[in-house]
Design a protein that fits this description.
Layout lengths: L3 H4 L5 E2 L3 E4 L5 E7 L2 E5 L9 E8 L3 E14 L8 E8 L1 H12 L13 E5 L5 H4 L4 E5 L2 H11 L3 E5 L4 H14 L4 E4 L4 H9 L4 E2 L6 H15 L2
Parallel strand pairs: 8-9, 8-10, 10-11, 11-12
Antiparallel strand pairs: 1-3, 2-3, 2-5, 3-4, 4-7, 5-6, 6-7
Helix pairs in contact: 2-7, 4-5
């Protein structure tokens, strides 16, 4: 059996990408290292299972395919989601590069073209999530977001869901009609709102437990990984 020390041979970094395995729904990674990835999942996967994973960010990061073995499983508890850790045997070069980006200096100055540009529609990110890592483009409603799309050219749109949900979904549909940029929703609160957002044009819905700070770190690394 793989021990804790063996699982931690490589430093782990919080990293939130979508993942998909054969026959499964898209799920979120929790962290990665040069040698593996941990996936949040309500679907148990037995330790020792051979597995192939796609790691991707819709419309931005093409799928990175890695293969390996489920080295450990974590049951759900009051303070953390269930999931499983994969020890990677194939395709680890991409994980190594992403892990390296996690420990390299933060994103450059806001006026640098290579900085990650995030448009936040209606919602707010915690101050620590944005400090020195990304250019944040606030939009207080859908109309401001539409006006800012061409002028500010965000890399990703983060759209807060909330009440009234019907109004938020209408804004989401309008945004999707005007941009091919990734749209990630957060703050939906329940599975029905998440499902309606995905059908209304969102590329992904962020689970409540996912840290905004770690999401911003991930997006900044992805921007540098894809090279622009």
């Amino acid at each position: 059996m793989t021990t804790v020390d063996e699982r931690r041979r490589h430093a782990r970094h919080p990293f939130h990408l979508l993942t998909r395995r054969a026959g499964g729904a898209a799920e979120w990674s929790e962290n990665l290292s040069a040698g593996g990835v941990f996936v949040r999942s309500d679907t148990p996967v037995p330790v020792g299972t051979a597995i192939e994973l796609e790691l991707f960010f819709p419309r931005w990061l093409p799928a990175l395919v890695v293969g390996g073995t489920v080295a450990w499983a974590r049951p759900a508890s009051a303070w953390q989601a269930a999931g499983y850790g994969v020890e990677v045997a194939r395709g680890g070069e991409a994980l190594l590069r992403l892990a390296q980006l996690c420990v390299e200096p933060p994103a450059p100055a806001a006026n640098d073209a290579s900085a990650c540009r995030l448009m936040v529609v209606r919602g707010e990110l915690a101050p620590m999530a944005t400090r020195g890592r990304a250019v944040i483009i606030p939009a207080h409603n859908g109309d401001e977001a539409l006006e800012g799309l061409a002028m500010r050219q965000p890399d990703v749109l983060l759209v807060e869901l909330g009440a009234p949900l019907a109004e938020r979904l209408d804004e989401l549909r309008r945004l999707r009609e005007h941009t091919e940029r990734p749209i990630v929703c957060f703050g939906g609160g329940d599975a029905d709102a998440a499902s309606r957002a995905l059908h209304g044009g969102a590329d992904a819905v962020l689970p409540e437990a996912v840290s905004h700070t770690h999401l911003v770190q991930t997006l900044c690394c992805v921007k540098r990984f894809v090279g622009g």
